[in-house]
Each structure stands twice: as structure tokens, then as C-alpha cells.
Design a protein that fits this description.
Chain A: Keywords: Oxidoreductase, Pyruvate, Thiamine pyrophosphate. Chain A: InterPro entries: THDP-binding (IPR029061), Transketo_C/PFOR_II (IPR009014), Transketolase-like_Pyr-bd (IPR005475), Transketolase_C (IPR033248). Chain A: Its cofactor is thiamine diphosphate. The structure holds three protein chains of three kinds. Chain B is of the alpha+beta class. Chain B contains eleven helices and 18 strands. In chain B, the strands form five sheets. Chain B has a six-stranded mixed sheet with strand order 9-18-17-16-12-15. The longest helix of chain B is centred in the C-terminal third of the chain and has 17 residues. The radius of gyration of chain C is 22 Å and the shape is globular. Chain C starts with 21 loop residues before the first helix and ends in a 40-residue tail after the last helix. The chains are: A alpha/beta, B alpha+beta, C alpha/beta. At the A-C interface, helix 3, helix 4, helix 5, helix 9 and helix 10 of A face helix 5 and helix 6 of C.
Chain lengths: 331, 439, 360
């Protein structure tokens, strides 16, 4: 085990795969000479050269589509899209092509590509640079979407994504890049499609992914200290496929749940989780499933407005308390 | 048309069974007439008519049970019909004998939810299909309840899916469970407090095919249901421990012989002496004459009065009539009252208040030769004493001594081991010095 | 899936012979007639409800199909549009498999998963028809990038319609190809209409090949009704592409029928339709070969009968090919199986409820 930042863990995974497999190459805006907008690819151009670390023009649709085509011929491109907001320019190539080629050609062509892209608000980047639209991709069969919340998973899930023969979107997060944690020294991938219980508990289930999964852990610790509440945290890790069984098993144990998500509430990932709980744990529910999600506004620039709109640990704690009050677990 | 509702005739009943109808369809009824006998979880109770009319229809036949507040018969009002009023008398359909109108507006006495927490508008919705129009500020809420009653039918209560499943499995009628969740919704905690009433009929049955154990199902009556529910709650929610002590009772038995000789026909039993001794020991150790309360951060309720319940095996099942203020009663008084209560239990004529408010229970299986046993605490009481048979044992200095073993089961949330030990020491001391029992 | 290259990049190639020999000229004709009869049979099968969905035909485009396909090496990759039946045939995919795909059967070239717009065949490096206008253009560019990455000698030919030259992906792709010197030829099949919209209505520069200038890319416009002209132009373009100079070629031909089989093309005047019919490239090419002494009336009849028999056999084959079994529905969602891939039919619950009603 080594303590690494989330950023370093991603970098380690990229470097490992570039060294391991000649067919792996990186492409994206500013990933080479500029060393990446968030410095994930720092030093890789020097080590691997411009063929394998390829700077692109500002043309998300073009280079993302080119990655799909290169993958169809057996290469393993890893695309960096600077933030998930810009992935919308490549939506057609991701949804209509990357996710479709394998199925619509009857399984004859594979698309072993990765799209790395960070979501996240809270940096006063305004409405167009603070969105969390991973739902758009998680919605689409043929895509795989993973959303690591700590450095160990960041490395293990990126390794898995690169070695997978399907298009995988790896959702990173601006606020997580500097977080640190223990990372195994080995290069074992994590299984895509599985959630992880990051804290066991008996009183309530917190379901989250990406940044909010890290927040959920803090929330659980605070609740244990201040309220004596023993919360279980389910880190979804994989948004597609979605590990419904782990969520449902946890709620069958705790009988109530709060979903924490950085996206908008209406039609969001939390809605899917809540529906899953309704399907699989209806007879175990002792309270309605609560969702803590972003306010439904284009995210403003001004700090107080931005802060108010984003889901916080305090929001989550209030939701947990209200839920447990409703089932008399706190009386 | 007025509905006659299943009355609440015991503090713990959730449903009652119709034992005997004293009126038939077509019979005239005036207030005070005996209408029906109801078997509650504790006794068979008489129930009288509150208003005049003619019995139109019996809805629940003899032998069948219904939840509190459920209609069991219909009464046609005497003609001429009471003139229509914009605000009909709130009490008109509510069999709450003595309650003033403002408290009956919510149908408190006729409404299941009112058993523990009277009068939330939520519980009113579980009331009768025909409801009196409420007056004053309660009107809006009750009107909504009316809508709910029409849409969901009588007895439909807001309850979480978990609660509905558990209630199915435990055979609990949710209409009788008070809900403390938002808007009166029943949550699991409410169910756990309420207790379980029946074991799932599926449980224990061999998988597939016919049951080769060839069982005969004996449905629980009210008493059995209450026993099952209360003791399950006790065993699954109350942390208990037991302590046992024995007392040399040669002197006590000799004293009893002498007392009985002097009493001219009326007999004092060992049990009567025990009740008296226990009452005195409880007075000496108020911490044992206590109940656990979850209020706030939890608290111990120290009871100012000593009411000793005596478990009795009656034809109706296990019944615990109560000797109120046993510490202030003489042994003969205790003896007389115990005999009277046991007789009523056998006849199923115990009144609710003769079964209520015990602060401690004695269960005596000595008559069956049992040496010692443990009993389960009967919540909210804090402890119970299990008494075995008097046995002759070799004495330390040769010869024999007659000893009696007592085992105290205590709620550890409020009673610690030392206190339990001190209580038993006091009790055995009293039994071994029987004059102090009589004093 | 083709993942390796068959020859080293920049290998010496024999000099392009601009004059196709007589056998090639006759082969063009046979190819054109086969496409013509096949598409006519497809149109009939559509009206008989044997074919569903959209169905876009190459009627009027036969000369471009024949000339272009003949110019490709077997190891080259061809990306097509949704109007691709003829190219699939010309690339060497058996007519039975193309027709079976239109019928949605298991023997179809895409196993019944793609239909008219999404045919794919790894063996012939037919890299797919694409239903989204221009969706294939970035993909083809990426395929060329893969060839370049591996140092292979193959090239990519990417078909696109005239309307596609107005989408962003077209420009992004041409820019990438030119920047990175990719071995790719973009072929604009200009039939004058994007559905009902003319090139002049849609494009500020209606000489579409001239858009290459923005990327300093070689380009040319050629008569799409002349298979030899198309053949020569594509050979030239491919030679440049293999040398790292991507190319933009524009072929100009007509669309004899509507945008798809259900389009009556009312936006065209009777005179326009008559002019198109008069300029029918198959008939014109037959007259040309007849005049050159390469075709006789008997041979014309024989070739026609062969093509008719071939497509009849293809239709018969397709008719008798099995429908895909519903049990295969979840076979092609993911290439790498992962846990929790939902395999649930629409009416099925996510969490099964056992018969006794007790939750699992």
C-alpha cells in the first residue's frame, strides 16, 4: 500500500497500461505539452512520445469518434475530455456510435475505448462548467460508466476500463483530484458493475458515487459521533451496469435509505436508485427513500448561490436525521 | 342508521370477539340494554346500548372477532328520526359512555389509534364508516379523514411497507396499532412496541407436501394472543437477568398452620403470605417496584404504590389479577381478595381494573412440584418472581429443613444485580422470620 | 475483427493503370446490373412487408458503386453511409447475406441486428453502414489513425453524402486527417439532394470537393455515372492517401427514386424525373459497351438474367433464413461480460416475486 492522491492514482494507471500494452494510447486536448488541464497526464508525453500521447485540436466529436474508429481496429484509445460538460459535443459519437457498434453490427466489432472526464461543481466555474451529466451516458446500454470515489478505486477502475473491450466512461471529479488514500501497489483492476460497501452499518443506508460517496463516508462518521447513528455506505462505483443487488441487500438490512448525488434530482441517478429500492426492498422499507441532490438551476457563479445549490454533508445529515426521525430510530 | 362499533373494553385489547348477542335483528333497544357480550384479551365483558333504536343487522356473528372500532351491528334510529342538523351530535354514533362531546368528536373511545394516543385526526380515519360530523377546529381534519375512510375503507392506516409485511407475518391488525411516524404513519418501532400477536402460520411447516406431523391448528383466542404478543415483546426487547435464592420456610409453614387454626374456616395459603412478603420487600426496594420508560434518554419510573399481580392458570388461559396496594393489605385481606379474583378469572368475569396497573408479578408453580424456574418479565413491569415448591432438604446440622426457591427475573435497564440480590435477601429474610410478614 | 495489417506502410505499389482492361469494363457492368436488380428486388420486398424500417437504395448510383469498389485493395477498409446495399455487394459480401440482413434474419450480414442501414462484415473489411448522417466520418478517420499508428499499408475509404459536408464532424475529421497525415479518402457521393434539399440550398460552396482547400487537402470532382472515371479517381486518391496525403473526392450522380423506398419524391418535377431516367447510368453504360463491341444483346440479356436469378435466390434464401431467437436478445450488449448487466424483458420485474407472494 502506498498513499497516493486520486490524481496520482489515475496517472499511475495510465502509465501502467501504456507500458503494458502497445495498443494503448492517449488522446485529447492539452494532454501532452500542456500535461493535461488537471495534470493527470503530466510527464507521459516525455516518456511515451507523441504517437502514444496525442494532443488533439479542440474537436471533441472528431477525436472521440476517431477513438471509436481506432478501437474498432483493435487499438485501445484512452480519450481525455477536459470536463464532462464538453463531452456533450461528442454525444453523438459516444451514444450513437461507441455504445452502438458492438450491438448493431451483431457483435462483429468491438470498441475497447475509454473516455476519462471529470465532473463536479463548486469551483465557481458557472453554469456550463459545473454540470454532472454522467446520467446521459449511464442511460445508454452498450456504455459502461464507472465513478470512483477514492484513489484506490480510481486506479483499479481505470485499469479495468482500459482492459475492457467495451466503451467505458470513467467519471472523475474535480474535487477529488487532490484527495489522498491508500492505493495497493499491485495492478489489479476492480470489477466494473459492482458496488462497494465502504462502511457497514445498521441504521440507514447511504447510497452515493464519485464525490458524494466520499461525502457519504464523512457524513456517516459525523452521524456516529453526534447522533449515535450507524450508517451503512454503499459506493455505487459503477453507474452502468448498476449493482442493484448490493443496494437492495443493504436497504433490506437497514430499512431506510438516503441517496446522495451531485446531479440534478429530477430523473437523476438517485431516482433510479430509489426506484430500484422500491422494486427490490419495498417490503423492507420503513420510510420513503430520500434524495439529496443539486438544486435544479443552472449553477450560478456567485459563491453563496453556488454553495446553496450544491449538495453538502450538512444537507445529507439533515436528510438522514429526518428519515430516522420518521421511523423513530432517533427517539 | 347507526353503527355499533367493537368497543374497547380492556387496556390492551386490539380486537374483541363477540361472545353472545343479546339482541337480534328487529329487536328494540333502549339505552342501557345489554346488547352484546364481548370476549376481550382478558375477560368476557358486557356491552350496553348507548341509544335507542332497532337492531337492523348483525355484522359480526358470535364467535367472530373484529378490531376495535369496526362496526359489529347496525341500529336503525327510532322514528321520528332525529331532525337533521347541520352539526349532528358528535356523540351520536360513538359508544363512548361518559366522554363529553368535545373529546368524542374524534371518536376517541371508538377508534383503534386512540388506544395509546387519543385523538390524533389520523386515528379518526380508522374509525367507523358512518362518522359524526366533528365540530369546531377539528372539522377540516376530520373531513379529510372522511375522505380517506371512503377511499381506503375502514381500518386502512398509513403504514410503511416494512410494517405491512411484518404485520402480515405476525398476524397483527394494523388498525389497532398507534402510529408515531409522520402523519401518524405506523413505522416498525411502533410495531415492536405493540408486540407480535401470532407466529407466521408458514413457519415450521415442512417444505412441500403434506405435513407429516399431522398438526391440528388451534387458533389463538384473545388471551392467548395477548400472551404471545406481550411475551414476545418482552423476550425480544427487554434485557433481563435472573437471580435465585432460597429461604428456610419451616417457621413460615408453622405460622400458617397456627393462623389458619385461628381463622375459623378461611384459609391463608403460602402464596398469600408470599404476596404479603413480596409487597413489603418491594416497599423496602422501590427500585424493583419500577418500570422502564424510553422517554427522553430513557428513565426509571419508581411507582409510589405497590400492586402485585398473581399469575393464575384459568380456564381462559394465563390471567394475572392484581392485588392493589398489597403492602397495605393484611394477609387475610390478601387471601380473600386473591380467592375472589381467582374465582372471577375462572368465570371470565374479571373487570378490567382488576387486571390493570400491576407493578410486579408473582408466578407460583409450587403446587406442581416445580423446584425452581424462571419467568419472563411482563412489561412495563420491571421484574417478576418465580416461586417453586417447598422441598425438604438435609439441614447442615443434621435433620431436614424445608426450603422454598425464588427466582427473580429483572429488567437490567433499570435493575442491577446488586439491587436484585438485596431485594431477594430482604424477601428471604421476611420468609424466614414470618412474624415480620404479618407485622 | 480486423486487427492486424497485411502489408507494411508505404510499400511500393505498381503504377496505377488509368485504363481498366476489357474484363474490368465488363465486370463493372455486371456489378452495376446486380446492384440495380438487387435494389429493385429490395424495393419489392419492402412493399411486401418482408423488409422493415428505412430502406435507402443505390438506384442511380450503380456506376459509382462499381468503380469505387473495384479500386480498393481487399485489405482496405470501407466505411459507408446508410445507403450502402450496393457497396456491400460490390465489396464481395454474398447477396444472400445482404438480403437476409434486410429481412432481419440470422444469416444476415449483421445477424439481423443492423438492417438496411447497419451492415457490417469483418471479412471484407466492410466497416459498416451508419444511420446517423456523418457518424461514420470520425470513425473512418480513427480507423486511418489506427493504420497509421501501426504503420500499415492499407487505406480507408469513407463514403458520405453531399449533405454530410455541412456537419461539424466532417470538418473536424478532415482537419484531423490532414493534421495527422492519415491514409484516408473521403468520397462525397453527390446525388444532388439531401432528402429533398438540393446541394445549392444547403451548401454555400456547392462545389463540395473544394472544401478540402480549408485543410490543404487534395481533392477532385468526378462523373459518378462513369465507373471507369470513378475507378481511376479513387485509385489516384488512394495512392495519395497511402502516402500520407488524405484526399477528398466528389462523385456526381443521380438518385433515380426517392430518398428512401417510401419517398415519392414529389419535390421533383416530371421533367426532372424524366431527365434522370434518360440519364440512367446502367443503360448509358450498356450503350457505351455495346458501341465498343464489348456487349451484345445476348450478353446483356444473359447478364440481366444472371442478376435477376441471383437476387431471386437471395430473396428466397432470406425468406427461409431463421428469425433471430429472442433468447439471443442480450448477446450483444457488451463484448466483455460484467456483473449486473440487466437482462430483463420489458414486462419482467427487476426483482422476481415468488409465486407465494412472499418477497424473496
Amino acid at each position: 500500500m502506498t498513499v497516493r492522491s486520486y490524481r496520482e492514482a489515475l496517472h499511475d494507471a495510465l502509465r501502467t497500461e501504456l507500458r503494458r500494452d502497445e495498443s494503448v494510447f492517449l488522446l485529447g486536448e492539452e494532454i501532452g505539452r500542456f500535461e493535461g488541464s488537471y495534470k493527470i497526464t503530466a510527464g507521459l508525453l516525455d516518456e511515451f512520445g507523441p504517437k502514444r500521447v496525442r494532443d488533439t485540436p479542440i474537436a471533441e466529436e472528431g477525436f472521440t469518434g476517431a477513438a471509436v474508429g481506432a478501437a474498432m481496429l483493435g487499438l485501445r484509445p484512452v480519450v481525455e475530455i477536459m470536463t464532462i460538460n464538453f463531452s456533450l459535443l461528442a454525444l453523438d459519437q459516444i451514444v450513437n456510435h461507441a455504445a452502438k457498434v458492438y450491438g448493431m453490427f451483431g457483435g462483429q466489432a468491438r470498441v475497447p475505448m475509454v473516455i476519462r472526464t471529470p465532473g463536479g461543481g463548486g469551483q465557481q466555474l458557472g453554469a456550463t462548467h459545473s454540470q454532472n451529466v454522467e446520467l446521459y451516458y449511464a442511460f445508454v446500454p452498450g456504455m459502461k460508466v464507472v465513478a470512483p470515489s477514492d484513489p484506490a478505486d480510481a486506479k483499479a477502475l481505470l485499469l479495468a476500463a482500459i482492459r475492457d473491450d467495451d466503451p467505458v466512461l470513467v467519471l472523475e471529479n474535480l474535487a477529488l483530484y487532490n484527495t489522498r488514500g491508500e492505493v495497493p501497489d499491485h495492478d489489479e483492476p476492480a470489477p466494473i458493475g459492482t458496488a462497494r460497501i465502504t462502511r457497514t452499518g445498521t441504521d440507514i443506508t447511504l447510497v452515493a458515487y464519485s464525490r458524494m460517496a466520499a461525502v457519504a463516508l464523512q457524513v456517516a462518521e459525523r452521524l456516529a459521533e453526534t447522533d449515535g447513528i450507524d450508517a451503512e455506505v454503499v459506493d455505487l462505483r459503477s453507474l452502468r451496469p448498476l449493482d442493484r443487488d448490493t443496494v437492495v441487500a443493504s436497504v433490506r438490512k437497514t430499512n431506510c435509505a438516503v441517496v446522495l448525488e451531485d446531479d440534478w434530482l429530477t430523473y437523476g441517478i438517485g431516482a433510479e436508485v430509489a426506484a430500484t429500492i422500491s422494486d427490490g426492498a419495498f417490503d423492507w422499507l420503513d420510510a420513503p427513500v430520500r434524495r439529496v441532490a443539486m438544486a435544479e438551476v443552472p449553477l450560478p457563479y456567485a459563491k453563496p448561490l453556488e454553495t446553496a445549490a450544491l449538495p453538502s454533508a450538512d444537507d445529507a445529515i439533515a436528510a438522514v436525521r429526518q428519515t430516522l426521525d420518521a421511523v423513530a430510530r432517533r427517539r | 342508521m347507526t353503527d355499533i362499533l367493537m368497543p374497547r373494553l380492556s387496556d390492551t385489547m386490539t380486537e374483541g370477539a363477540v361472545a353472545t348477542w343479546h339482541k337480534r335483528p328487529g329487536d328494540r333497544v333502549v339505552p342501557g340494554d345489554l346488547l352484546v357480550e364481548i370476549e376481550t384479551d382478558k375477560a368476557v365483558m358486557e356491552h350496553e346500548a348507548y341509544e335507542a333504536g332497532t337492531v337492523a343487522e348483525i355484522l359480526v356473528p358470535e364467535g367472530r372477532a373484529a378490531a376495535i372500532g369496526a362496526p359489529i351491528a347496525r341500529l336503525t334510529a327510532d322514528s321520528p328520526a332525529t331532525p337533521p342538523s347541520p352539526v349532528p351530535s358528535p356523540g351520536s354514533a360513538v359508544p363512548a359512555a361518559s366522554a363529553p362531546p368535545e373529546s368524542t368528536a374524534s371518536g376517541a373511545a371508538a377508534v383503534p389509534g386512540a388506544a395509546v394516543e387519543p385523538a390524533p385526526s389520523e386515528s379518526a380515519s380508522a374509525g367507523a364508516a358512518v362518522k359524526p360530523a366533528p365540530s369546531g377546529s377539528a372539522a377540516a381534519g376530520a373531513a379529510m379523514s372522511d375522505v380517506a375512510a371512503r377511499v381506503e375503507g375502514p381500518g386502512r392506516r398509513a403504514a410503511t411497507p416494512l410494517v405491512r409485511r411484518l404485520a402480515r407475518e405476525r398476524g397483527i391488525d394494523l388498525s389497532a396499532v398507534p402510529g408515531t411516524g409522520p402523519g401518524g404513519r405506523i413505522v416498525r418501532a411502533d410495531l415492536d412496541l405493540f408486540g407480535t400477536a401470532a407466529v407466521s402460520p408458514v413457519a415450521g411447516a415442512p417444505a412441500g407436501g403434506t405435513d407429516r406431523r399431522e398438526p391440528t391448528a388451534v387458533p389463538f383466542d384473545g388471551v392467548r394472543q395477548t400472551i404471545a404478543a406481550r411475551l414476545t415483546t418482552s423476550a425480544s426487547t427487554v434485557p433481563t437477568f435472573t437471580v435465585t435464592a432460597s429461604a428456610a420456610v419451616d417457621d413460615l409453614l408453622d405460622l400458617r398452620v397456627r393462623v389458619n387454626a385461628a381463622l375459623d374456616g378461611r384459609k391463608v395459603t403460602v402464596n398469600d403470605l408470599l404476596v404479603r412478603a413480596v409487597a413489603r420487600a418491594l416497599r423496602a426496594h422501590p427500585g424493583v417496584n419500577a418500570s422502564y420508560s424510553p422517554e427522553g434518554r430513557g428513565r426509571t419510573l419508581l411507582h409510589g404504590r405497590v400492586h402485585v399481580g398473581v399469575a393464575v392458570a384459568s380456564p381462559a388461559g394465563l390471567i394475572v389479577p392484581v392485588i392493589h396496594d398489597a403492602d397495605r393489605a393484611s394477609v387475610t385481606d390478601i387471601s380473600a381478595r386473591t380467592r375472589e379474583l381467582a374465582g372471577k378469572a375462572a368465570d371470565r368475569t374479571l373487570a378490567p381494573d382488576e387486571l390493570a396497573d400491576a407493578t410486579f408479578t408473582i408466578s407460583n408453580l409450587g403446587m406442581y412440584g416445580i423446584e425452581s424456574f424462571t419467568a419472563i418479565v411482563n412489561p412495563p413491569q420491571g421484574a417478576i418472581l418465580a416461586v417453586g415448591a417447598v422441598r425438604e432438604e438435609p439441614a447442615a446440622g443434621g435433620g431436614t429443613v424445608r426450603r422454598l426457591r425464588c427466582t427473580l427475573t429483572a429488567d437490567h435497564r433499570i435493575i442491577d444485580g446488586a439491587l436484585a440480590a438485596q431485594f431477594l435477601a430482604t424477601l428471604t429474610g421476611l420468609l424466614e422470620h414470618p412474624l415480620t410478614v404479618l407485622a | 475483427m480486423p486487427t492486424s495489417t497485411s502489408a507494411p506502410r508505404r510499400r511500393r505499389r505498381p503504377p496505377t493503370n488509368p485504363a481498366a482492361d476489357d474484363a474490368q469494363l465488363l465486370a463493372f457492368y455486371r456489378q452495376m446490373v446486380l446492384v440495380r436488380r438487387f435494389e429493385e428486388r429490395a424495393a419489392r420486398a419492402y412493399t411486401e412487408a418482408r423488409i422493415g424500417g428505412y430502406c435507402h437504395l443505390n438506384l442511380g448510383e450503380e456506376a459509382t458503386v462499381a468503380g469505387l469498389a473495384a479500386a480498393l485493395d481487399p485489405t482496405d477498409y470501407l466505411f459507408a453511409t446508410y445507403r450502402e446495399h450496393g457497396y456491400a455487394l460490390a465489396r464481395g459480401i454474398a447477396p444472400e447475406r445482404v438480403m437476409a440482413e434486410l429481412y432481419g434474419r440470422t444469416d444476415g450480414v449483421s445477424g439481423g441486428w443492423g438492417g438496411s442501414m447497419h451492415m457490417f462484415d469483418a471479412d471484407t473489411r466492410f466497416m459498416g453502414g451508419y444511420g446517423i448522417v456523418g457518424g461514420q466520418v470520425p470513425l473512418a478517420t480513427g480507423a486511418a489513425l489506427a493504420i497509421e499508428y501501426r504503420g500499415g499499408g492499407e487505406a480507408v475509404v469513407c463514403l458520405l453524402g453531399d449533405g454530410t459536408t455541412n456537419i461539424g464532424a466532417f470538418h473536424e475529421s478532415l482537419n484531423l486527417a490532414a493534421l495527422w497525415h492519415l491514409p484516408i479518402v473521403y468520397v462525397i457521393v453527390n446525388n444532388g439532394l439531401g432528402m429533398g434539399t438540393t446541394v445549392e440550398q444547403a451548401s454555400a460552396e456547392p462545389e463540395l470537393h473544394r472544401r478540402a482547400a480549408a485543410y490543404r487537402m487534395d481533392s477532385a470532382r468526378v462523373d459518378g455515372n462513369d465507373p471507369t472515371a470513378v475507378y481511376d479517381a479513387v485509385r489516384t486518391a488512394l495512392a495519395g492517401a497511402r502516402a500520407g496525403r488524405p484526399y477528398l473526392l466528389e462523385t456526381v450522380s443521380g438518385r433515380l427514386k426517392g430518398h428512401s423506398v417510401v419517398d415519392p419524391a414529389k419535390y421533383r418535377s416530371r421533367a426532372e424525373a424524366a431527365a434522370l431516367a434518360a440519364a440512367d447510368p446502367v443503360a448509358a453504360y450498356a450503350v457505351r459497351l455495346h458501341g465498343a463491341g464489348l456487349l451484345t444483346d445476348e450478353l446483356i440479356a444473359e447478364i440481366d438474367a444472371d442478376a435477376t436469378a441471383t437476387v431471386a435466390a437471395a430473396a428466397d434464401f432470406a425468406e427461409h433464413s431463421p428469425h433471430p431467437d429472442v433468447s439471443t436478445l442480450f448477446d450483444h450488449t457488451y463484448a466483455t461480460p460484467v456483473p449486473n448487466d440487466a437482462r430483463r424483458l420489458p414486462g419482467e420485474p427487476l426483482f422476481p416475486v415468488p409465486a407465494n407472494g412472499v418477497p424473496a
